[in-house]
Structures are given as C-alpha cells and as structure tokens.
C-alpha cells in the first residue's frame, strides 16, 4: 500500500506560509506583492483556472488585477497591455493564461513579459537560466512536483527518474529540475519504444502525457514513487490522471491522487514565484 501524497494539505501549508510573509511585509513596509492575470477569450477551463489563481492571491493578501479581454483581441493590443504591466510598479508578476486564441502568437506574448515578472517561468530567459543550472523563476507545475517530493521526504539524488511527456510547461523543465538535484533522467514521448520497459526502471515516475490512466500496474516498479500530473475528463464526467490509480497504488511506495495531488501545488508555486518576484524587484 502506497503512502498517498496529499497535495491539498501540502499546498495549503505553503499558501499559509506565503500569506504570513505577505502580511509581515504589509505591516512592516506597507507594500504587497501584485499579480496581473490576463485572460483572452472565454474558454471555460481557463476561466476556472484564472478564478482559482486570483482567489488564492487575494487569500494570501496579494494585490490581484484581472484583465478579461475578448477573444478577438488583436496581438498588438495584448502586447501593449503586457508592456503596461511590465512598467507598473504595483505589479510584480504577470500571468497570461494559455492557450491564447489562434491568431495571437503565443511565443511573442511570452517573450514580451519582463523576465523578472515572468512568474509562470515560460520566458526563454527563465528557461535558459534553468538549463544553465542557475534558475530565476521556474514553471509552477514542475516546481510543484519538486516541492511535493521534498515535503514528502523523498530522496532525489542518484535516483532513476522517468518522465512521460516532454512539453515546455511540464516535462522538459521538470527534467532539468530533477537533473539539477542529481537524479538520472529519462524523458519519454510518443516515439518512445517499449514505454513500459522504460517506466518500469523508474524509482521516481512522473506521468505528464494527458492520456487517461495510460500508466498501468505492469509499467511500474515495486516501491516506485509515482507522481501524476495528468488531468483528464472521462466521457462520464469523472476526472482522472494519467495513472491507473487502483492498479499502481498497491505497487508504489508513494503516489499522488488526481484530483488533490499536483494540481493544488501549481497555484501555491505561482504565489511563491510572485512573492519572489516582488522581493527581487523591491529588495524587500
Ligand atoms: P502536452 O499535450 O503539451 O504534452 C504531452 C506530452 O506527453 C507530449 O510530450 C507527448 O509526446 C507525450 N505523450 C502523449 N501521449 C503519450 C503516450 N501515449 N506515450 C508517451 N508519451 C505521450 O501536455 P502538457 O504537458 O501541457 O500536460 C500534460 C498533462 O498534464 C495534461 O493532462 C494536462 O492537463 C496536465 N497538466 C496539469 C497541470 C496541473 O496543474 N495539475 C498543469 C499543466 C498540465 P510528443 O511530444 O511526442 O507529442
């Protein structure tokens, strides 16, 4: 029987720690971290994510400024808003919710954000700093995975870590973060041959493919730590991860549930990045 890693509980603890630090800053220096959240269009999932992020910000005592733009917004108008936020001293973090409508170049928008305010950690400057081994802002979801491992007392150094998924927002930055902590890394994707053979070697297995329950019991080594980043909605409405929980849980030493595992950590890490960005910009 695996020990279940409770992401809700760990994230709540982190949010409280951050809230206490923000309160202290407010009392002692009269300033608070500020986050600008920009949403283009009316994608229902994005609206839910953005709403959660804004609520978490407010609960932590941060300033949260919301910009809801219509889906037909022109790229140049979005870039102008990003530039305004770059120059606004009350704003320390800028989040542009992805995906953006097809007529807007995502890279152009990501690159327009001042890297010091890039609390999503997606700017090539921040990706480059991570690649170099000297990170500034790191992407929230992989950072949340690292924090879950650390706060669960799971050693990383020297371990065989296998990640399924190589996206820029999860798989790739997570590989770099684990490498920095001296794990041996394998990154799998759709062209990987004998996926089960590779995942079966993992001491730490992270599933971030976005394929419902694709990691079956026979793909996991006895005693492995299994982290499930995937969020998939089944036709019957149920939310499941990339891991077949009931098959894998009896073999794993630790496992994250979906929901209530990695998801809540992403928001906690956004708050932490915003607090760090604030300290960096104000010297507070
Ligand atoms: P992407 O679709 O951008 O990337 C998926 C990756 O998984 C790709 O590299 C793809 O390979 C690989 N992959 C897909 N299917 C398979 C397969 N059958 N075998 C091996 N590899 C496969 O997804 P994201 O990284 O954006 O997200 C991954 C999952 O994590 C999603 O379920 C998403 O909802 C969830 N997520 C959760 C977050 C949270 O806060 N909890 C935050 C962000 C994402 P290839 O490159 O070859 O196409």
Description:
The protein is an alpha/beta fold. It has two domains: about 30-115, Leucine Dehydrogenase, chain A, domain 1 (Rossmann fold, 3-Layer(aba) Sandwich); about 140-265, NAD(P)-binding Rossmann-like Domain (Rossmann fold), CATH 3.40.50. About 40% of the residues lie in helices and about 15% in strands. It has ten helices and eleven strands. It has helices at about 5-30, 45-60, 75-85, 105-110, 125-130, 140-150, 170-180, 195-200, 245-250, 260-280, and strands spanning about 5, 35-40, 65-70, 95, 160-165, 185-190, 205, 225-230, 230-235, 240, 255. Strands 1-11-8-7-5-6 form a six-stranded parallel β-sheet. Strand 9 and strand 10 (about 240) form a beta hairpin. Helix 1 (about 5-30) packs parallel to helix 10, helix 2 packs across helix 10 and helix 6 (about 140-150) crosses helix 10. The model has no long low-confidence stretch (mean pLDDT about 95). NADPH dihydro-nicotinamide-adenine-dinucleotide phosphate binds near residues 169 and 262.
Keyword list:
six-stranded parallel beta sheet; Rossmann fold; 10 helices; globular; 284 residues; alpha/beta; three-stranded parallel beta sheet; binds NADPH dihydro-nicotinamide-adenine-dinucleotide phosphate
